[in-house]
Amino acid sequence: MYQWDFGILWSYRWLFLNGLGVTVGFTVVIVVLGLVFGLFGAFGSLSRFKPIRLLALTFIEAFRCTPILVQLIWFYYALPILAGVEMTPITASALALSLYGGSFYSEIIRGGIISIDKGQSEAGAALGMTPGQSMRRIVLPQAIKRMIPALMNQSIIQFKNTSLVSVLAVPDLVYQSQVAAHDSYRPLETYTAVAVAYAAILIPLTIIVRRGEKRLAVSE
Amino acid sequence: MSDTSKIEIRSLRKSFGSNEVLKNINLDVAKGGVVALIGPSGSGKSTLLRCINLLVVPDGGSVRVGDTRFAFGEGAKLPDVRTLAKFRATTGMVFQHFNLFPHMTTLQNVMEGPVTVRRMAKADAEKLARAQLAKVGLAEKADQYPATLSGGQKQRVAIARALAMEPDVMLFDEATSALDPELVGEVLNVIQQLASEGMTMVIVTHEIAFAREVADRLIFMRDGVVVEEGPARQVIDNPTEAATRAFLSHFHRTGALPPANATS
Description:
The complex is a heterodimer.
Chain A: H1 13-45, H2 50-64, H3 68-83, H4 89-114, H5 118-127, H6 131-161, H7 173-184, H8 187-219
Chain B: E1 5-16, E2 19-30, E3 34-38, H1 45-52, E4 60-65, E5 68-72, H2 81-88, E6 91-94, H3 106-117, H4 122-135, H5 151-163, E7 169-173, H6 181-196, E8 200-204, H7 208-214, E9 217-222, E10 225-231, H8 232-237, H9 242-248
Parallel strand pairs in B: 3-8, 3-9, 6-7, 7-8
Antiparallel strand pairs in B: 1-2, 1-4, 4-5, 9-10
Helix pairs in contact in B: 3-4, 3-5, 4-5, 5-6
Domain ABC transmembrane type-1 (chain A): 20-209
Family (chain A): Belongs to the binding-protein-dependent transport system permease family. HisMQ subfamily.
Pfam families (chain A): BPD_transp_1
């Protein structure tokens, strides 16, 4: 019978905290950047101009339909050879994860916008609004309300996806715990603790999201 | 007539795919005139109405409202979005399904046009909006959201919202078709009041008795063409075309308007 000893992890606490800091910071960066890419992708795919629509759809499908692990490795190893762009592991993984997340955010944002009844933008147009004004004043305020639960959900997935950056030696929580596991010869305790750490952050977040969904359902 | 007319439509054509919904339509509405457009569904009357404020862009012909004229068809350049927006700001439209903005209160709905489109100061827009709400008998509903209103109240707010732009022309697209029968009267009452104030209006409606009372001209459309046109009472009481007679036989053409309780 295996003898569990979690006490041994205490001596690696700074390593874990450090890793957790990188994981959380990384998540913030890729969620924000991802939303920016998502906005471009969504509005691009709704554009009146066909070349822009095609460009946006190519971006969305390229990143949505390939595995994130492959994208990470490709951005770090293949892009420098193809484009002559040398990137640090952190830049490469931030870019890959933001674009990957952005492709999903695009679809969420696009879906939110087209879910708003056409009569709403017609009413705006009939008042004399330009398409931009009716998007800002009429469609988006209603669409954002509908998007928020799905955007939160995707961001939670993004938080977990950051664990993959350890393959490029970015010192996130998973990478640091690999270090701790090798050093202590205690991989079972280490990875159990890491799993608990992810869950401890995400479970409260999911509860908040669920409450938010209920509140939105009431106000509709 | 075209010298004094407020709305002038010439040789208007519109197709959706291979379906030709408007075939060479001509229409004049005098200043202060009220024209009722009637006809079976699919006759093109709603499309014609939507061509007047260019919510639907015609394939050919011309549309003039006031001093602004647009020509369509070969060689004609499509107006850009700003020109279109400016043009639409001078016409008010009321929709079958109200299309109120659900994320705004009644007052905010009515203020939205003046604030966003006319760049009016908030305080002035609020004064104007409250006046318009009072006009349709809903002053006390200013702070409620549309979801809490009845269908008739929603449509009256939608009329107030359109009027807040102080338009020259009002377009009604089956404004009472989505209402419960007992709520139709309060909306018709508001429209009738507008007519008596001299507003130029084009009304797509199935309320034949109402059209007979309020409209001075009546146009009967079928399959994308104007079948019969004339003074409203004359066309309704003595239609000359067989198609008009057949259509009108489905309706009570005279009698009292539905009871109005515009104060509720």
